[in-house]
Write a structure and sequence with these properties.
With 484 residues, the protein is of the alpha+beta class. The protein folds into 2 domains: 292 residues, no CATH class; 171 residues, no CATH class. It contains 9 helices and 30 strands. The strands form 6 sheets. Strands 1, 4, 5, 7, 8, 10, 13, 14, 15 and 16 form a 10-stranded antiparallel beta sheet that branches. Strands 19, 20, 22, 23, 25, 27, 28, 29 and 30 form a 9-stranded antiparallel beta sheet that branches. The two termini are 19 Å apart. About 18% of the residues have low confidence.
Length: 484
């Protein structure tokens, strides 16, 4: 299992061991998150075995597959949004307007939202200095956020796991690492978030530290002196009143059974914001948790220049001769041309499909793009499974999403007799006729989830056929995703 995944599991278990019920970073119940990681671990291992770039070795293959699997639900949601569906059970936090600490389907009545401004730009707050989100102090020394990992190493911070330094992160990927406080050993470690801003993949040692979390035990038991906001807020010392006097009304607040949590945000570009969350213990009226995150790209950061690099795995594609009868083969016919996913986007381009926008794709990520051909349009998911950023034309199409509405009238076919005009009953009958028994049919969302590998879970979003049925009982959209 990948070190990133292990680190997140360790962080969650560490919080549970310390007696916390909720994650100060996401607001989610910790026990629920622990179960989620346990289930997804098996899915990740399965997905890693089928990733595209076999020539790069097992360790790198598993790494890329893990990152892709982590963001598979997000990709599926983007496709659903493109075709008019919002699938909340795939990704709970994809809505930009939804505050980060919003928790759907909370399992604890003691955990409730206390402050929820209807308009983020209108709620009463002080103008918070960005510097409050850009640094923290520990034991008399001040450190920057974001700050180069190498700068922390040069300041005598030590990785708890030396292997973490060489773990490769894709473009925009973040993970959690534990560093020993300078001058200490044993268990005096602090939890940091690391982000790769580069469009090329980089080892963690060359990335940026973008977040930090401090807990009561870091001060009371480990003896560290920790503060933020130019020393105005101190772990284990500052009261609730003093927090509000310093920062004003929060962006969001939660009242829990044993503490209250205030979240403050400084927004920049989409998904690039600074945020801090401060938990105050109700019994002693003192700050017990501090979480600070600043993902705004540093002003001195220089993005890499994307070259004409063409990943080797693109040359291994072989076009199928016929559509065939295997519904789970990854074959799909669009306007008399049969493709087998994953397929280079260049094959689509050669057949007259042009991207709406020419763009570059960062290392080890997927993104949703739209192709056009005459009056027709096609939504596809493209993947860059290499450690170098590439131009869009050098990516692999791993997913295709089709609208079954008559107004689109796109000529497309699937193997096994599955057609875009089928009713709900006809879909079920077609699956039975093809001997497909492992699938999930959600009646509330009117959705079929059919794993292409029938021995896998229906939650393997990297290799899956998803069908939505409209309120009239007819097929509405069809999406097929196959990474390898």
């Amino acid at each position: 299992m990948n070190d990133n995944w292990q680190n997140e599991q360790l962080r969650i278990q560490d919080m549970i061991n310390k007696g916390y019920k909720y994650d100060p970073v996401t607001g989610q119940p910790l026990e629920q998150m622990a179960k989620m990681y346990s289930v997804q671990q098996n899915t990740v291992v399965s997905t890693a075995q089928g990733t595209l770039d076999n020539s790069q070795g097992k360790k790198k293959t598993n790494k890329a597959a893990l990152y892709i699997a982590t963001f598979g639900g997000v990709t599926m949601l983007l496709i659903a949004l493109t075709i008019g569906h919002i699938v909340s059970n795939l990704v709970k936090h994809a809505d930009k307007d939804k505050p980060k600490f919003y928790v759907e389907n909370s399992i604890d009545e003691d955990y409730f939202e206390k402050y929820n401004p209807s308009d983020d730009s209108e709620y009463d707050k002080k103008d918070i200095d960005l510097s409050y989100f850009s640094s923290f102090s520990i034991n008399g020394n001040t450190y920057e956020l974001p700050g180069k990992v190498q700068d922390y190493i040069n300041s005598d911070w030590v990785f708890n796991n030396d292997n973490d330094m060489d773990t490769v992160l894709g473009y925009g990927e973040s993970t959690t690492v534990y560093l020993h406080v300078p001058g200490t050993v044993s268990d005096n470690t602090i939890s940091f978030g690391v982000t790769n801003y580069s469009m090329d993949a980089l080892p963690i040692r060359d990335c940026y530290i973008t977040s930090v979390e401090f807990y009561e035990v870091d001060g009371s038991r480990k003896g560290n002196e920790i503060s933020i906001c130019d020393g105005k807020i101190v772990l284990c010392q500052t009261s609730e009143k003093e927090v509000l006097e310093t920062l004003g009304e929060p962006y969001h607040a939660f009242d829990m059974s044993q503490s209250v949590a205030y979240t403050y945000r400084y927004e920049s570009d989409y998904d690039m914001y600074s945020e801090m969350t401060i938990h105050i213990d109700k019994q002693n009226d003192r700050v017990q948790i501090i979480s600070v995150r600043n993902r705004i790209t540093p002003e001195d950061f220089e993005q890499v220049e994307v070259t004409d690099y063409v990943p080797e795995y693109l040359s291994g594609y072989e076009a199928p001769g016929t559509l065939g009868d295997d519904m789970l083969s990854g074959n799909i016919q669009i306007q008399d041309v049969v493709y087998n996913l994953p397929a280079p986007i260049s094959v689509f381009i050669e057949n007259g499909w042009e991207p709406y926008n020419s763009e570059d794709v960062g290392a080890l990520i997927e993104k949703v793009v739209t192709l056009k051909k005459g009056g027709d349009s096609l939504t596809v998911t493209v993947q860059n499974n290499s450690e170098k950023a590439v131009h869009l034309e050098n990516t692999m199409v791993t997913g295709v999403s089709l609208s079954c509405s008559s107004r689109y009238n796109l000529d497309a076919k699937m193997p096994g007799g599955l057609t875009l005009t089928m009713s709900d009953k006809e879909i079920a009958s077609c699956l039975e006729k093809n001997g497909i028994t492992n699938y999930e049919h959600r009646k509330d969302t009117r959705m079929y989830k059919i794993p292409l590998n029938q021995s896998s879970s229906a939650d393997d979003y990297g290799n899956i056929l998803i069908i939505y049925v409209n309120s009239d009982g007819q097929m509405d959209t069809l999406s097929i995703h196959k990474r390898g």
